[in-house]
Amino acid sequence: MAPTNSPPAFEKEQIFGMAEKEMEYRVELFNKLTHTCFNKCIENKYKESELNMGENSCIDRCVSKYWQVTNLVGQLLGNNRPPM
Amino acid sequence: MAPTNSPPAFEKEQIFGMAEKEMEYRVELFNKLTHTCFNKCIENKYKESELNMGENSCIDRCVSKYWQVTNLVGQLLGNNRPPM
Amino acid sequence: MAPTNSPPAFEKEQIFGMAEKEMEYRVELFNKLTHTCFNKCIENKYKESELNMGENSCIDRCVSKYWQVTNLVGQLLGNNRPPM
Amino acid sequence: MDKSMLGDLDSLPEEDKLRMSSMIDQLQIRDSLRMYNSLVERCFTDCVDTFRRKSLDKQEETCVRRCAEKFLKHSMRVGMRFAELNQGAATPD
Amino acid sequence: MDKSMLGDLDSLPEEDKLRMSSMIDQLQIRDSLRMYNSLVERCFTDCVDTFRRKSLDKQEETCVRRCAEKFLKHSMRVGMRFAELNQGAATPD
Amino acid sequence: MDKSMLGDLDSLPEEDKLRMSSMIDQLQIRDSLRMYNSLVERCFTDCVDTFRRKSLDKQEETCVRRCAEKFLKHSMRVGMRFAELNQGAATPD
């Protein structure tokens, strides 16, 4: 960023705009991950309201793998930083 | 709301922000309801462009049940007011 | 637009708001088209990372037909201009 | 979606009323454009399945027309029922 | 979604902190309302399939309750795992 | 999505041009981040189906790579065809 001679109000808007997009991205990542792992791990007959042991370990692994896919796709897209 | 001593401009932004989110929520509720009941009630072969009697009564009941599910889930989430 | 006597700041906000909605619409159209044609044309076993000849020509026709459906639905909704 | 479902503006001061009304207009424009996009997506997905030519054939076109008309009628009916529920006019089974 | 996942505000000047914090609040409100809507959609889609009456029957109601409770527990667990990954606490297989 | 598809700014006064251009930048950033998210969701859904370990196996990783590369190529081709249609360059069947 230019230190002083640029219009600071406009520049600040840009920075806040970027920060907002970043946060929207994180929220969307979390929501997609949550819905996708629910689809993969939870049987949709809902015989009980507790998560059973199989579902719990499936969730943990699903989150971990989703995270890895996020990093892998990020590399392919040329991002040089982790998803968060 | 505090009557005078608080920064009114900032506070007003908050109120307008809340109102905007509320309205977005209502629009999204209506759209999800519309799409879900279309999926449940309308056969997707489209042999004619009119709604038949069976479809019409299915729609009415679907809207009614969707509304009840909205209220039920709202209770579980700890909302103490109706969906609108 | 009224030339001078109207409140220009408020009016300008309206115009920028409209322009923003239009652009969001175009982005969404492009994204829905892309995802729909991927579903229709690309086999999801991913045996290779290249598009084969059948997929390529399917994509071209899919885009063309999607465009026509956009125009057709636009006419039914009473739009008198093309989708872009 | 009917504008009246989004809120009652009468209690607001004039200046806020204008702003709130403009906000509702913007939401409605966004909503109609999204509806347009999702209607196209739905009718395309349900009606178009072959890609041997680049133009819609007669049968696909008919299907798309019916799909869109049916969706609009459906949407209007849902809107009426929805408005009744909002006004607490729901009657027991 | 936990607020702390959205960013660290300590390094900002006071005025910007207020604005950023308000932005985060707005995003969280929007996110909870969207979550509410999509939870309703999911549980309705999975649990309600017959439309011979206009009221939920006992079985549908039980299904919706379980679906919603299960989703909330699922979502909390995902949140914990997600937070660990964010903090680089992930351990090898 | 190509910036040029979003509009022609040449006719605007300088100040509005700056604002409009900034708006387009913001939409593009949001769009790329959304695209990233939905690409991950799609390739994960299509490629990962077993949860006996917490790391991707070789086969899943290959599938994700191909899926992402294929989607990007697909998306570029769609963009070209879309641009042609926007410019009215569409030719009959």
Automatic annotation (TrEMBL), chains A, B, C:
Record keyword Transport present: yes
One CC-aspect GO term: mitochondrial inner membrane
Pfam family, one: zf-Tim10_DDP
Residue span, Tim10-like domain: 17-77
Location(s), subcellular: Mitochondrion inner membrane
GO BP: protein insertion into mitochondrial inner membrane; protein transport
Bilayer topology term: Peripheral membrane protein
Record GO terms (molecular function): metal ion binding
Keywords of this entry: Chaperone, Disulfide bond, Membrane, Metal-binding, Mitochondrion, Mitochondrion inner membrane, Protein transport, Translocation, Transport, Zinc
Domain free text: The twin CX3C motif contains 4 conserved Cys residues that form 2 disulfide bonds in the mitochondrial intermembrane space.
Subunit architecture: Heterohexamer.
Function, in words: Mitochondrial intermembrane chaperone that participates in the import and insertion of some multi-pass transmembrane proteins into the mitochondrial inner membrane. Also required for the transfer of beta-barrel precursors from the TOM complex to the sorting and assembly machinery (SAM complex) of the outer membrane. Acts as a chaperone-like protein that protects the hydrophobic precursors from aggregation and guide them through the mitochondrial intermembrane space.
Similarity remark: Belongs to the small Tim family.
Protein name listed in UniProt: Mitochondrial import inner membrane translocase subunit
Organism: Olea europaea subsp. europaea
From TrEMBL, chains D, E, F:
Keyword annotations from UniProtKB, A to Z: Chaperone, Disulfide bond, Membrane, Metal-binding, Mitochondrion, Mitochondrion inner membrane, Protein transport, Translocation, Transport, Zinc
GO molecular function per UniProt: metal ion binding
Record's bilayer topology term: Peripheral membrane protein
Annotated ranges, domain Tim10-like: 23-84
GO cellular component, one term: mitochondrial inner membrane
Compartments in which it is found: Mitochondrion inner membrane
Gene Ontology process terms (BP): protein transport
Free-text domain note: The twin CX3C motif contains 4 conserved Cys residues that form 2 disulfide bonds in the mitochondrial intermembrane space.
Complexes and interactors: Heterohexamer; composed of 3 copies of TIM9 and 3 copies of TIM10, named soluble 70 kDa complex. The complex associates with the TIM22 component of the TIM22 complex. Interacts with multi-pass transmembrane proteins in transit.
Cited function: Mitochondrial intermembrane chaperone that participates in the import and insertion of some multi-pass transmembrane proteins into the mitochondrial inner membrane. Also required for the transfer of beta-barrel precursors from the TOM complex to the sorting and assembly machinery (SAM complex) of the outer membrane. Acts as a chaperone-like protein that protects the hydrophobic precursors from aggregation and guide them through the mitochondrial intermembrane space.
Protein name per its UniProtKB record: Mitochondrial import inner membrane translocase subunit
Organism: Olea europaea subsp. europaea
